[in-house]
Amino acid sequence: MRISLRRTAVSLTLCAAAAGIVLAQAAAPKASPPVLIASCGQSTAPDTLNAIFRKVGVPYDVVWAATLKDLAAKPYKTLIITMGASLKGMGAAGVSIDDELKRTGDLIAAARKAKIKIIGAHIEGMSRRAQGAEAGDTTDEQSIDLVAPSSDILFIRKDGNSDNRFTIIATAKKIPMIEFEKNLQMIPELEKIFK
Fold this sequence. Notes:
Elements: H1 2-26, E1 35-40, H2 45-56, E2 60-62, H3 68-72, E3 78-83, H4 87-93, H5 97-113, E4 117-122, H6 139-147, E5 153-157, H7 165-173, E6 177-180, H8 186-194
Parallel strand pairs: 1-2, 1-3, 3-4, 4-5, 5-6
Helix pairs in contact: 2-8, 5-6
């Protein structure tokens, strides 16, 4: 009888420990301010995040074409990189997608070295994907190819993931992914991450 009670106690302990591990894995991913928001592709997403972060209430800066100098200007703890390219935006800024990928790749490498958390954000839906681009334009997908697999957290508008593009990356790289449906839903989701 004593042996079976001990076995039961050990089994319960192991089950509780396993449950604790599952709960820990299921917990919402966390990041810390201050936050630097940048773009990979010069889309309008940083403007949207600017409006959203005003309501989230954590310290942040938006620098569309952030460089290593910008990243080092303050003790940033989190770098949010918006994915999705705008040919119009890049044209106005006088840059190409190759320029954007090089600058962003340098930012990612520097953030990794400084142990700054990277959030890859795709918040403009399927219209900011190759399916909504001109024929032959792959700039949106190139932006995703660079940023998404290098992220610590993926923050994705659900309709932009209708083909499971981000789910596949998140699963393969074991990256926690947060999906939302409408822009205002970003506020509580970001509050969970940063507060």
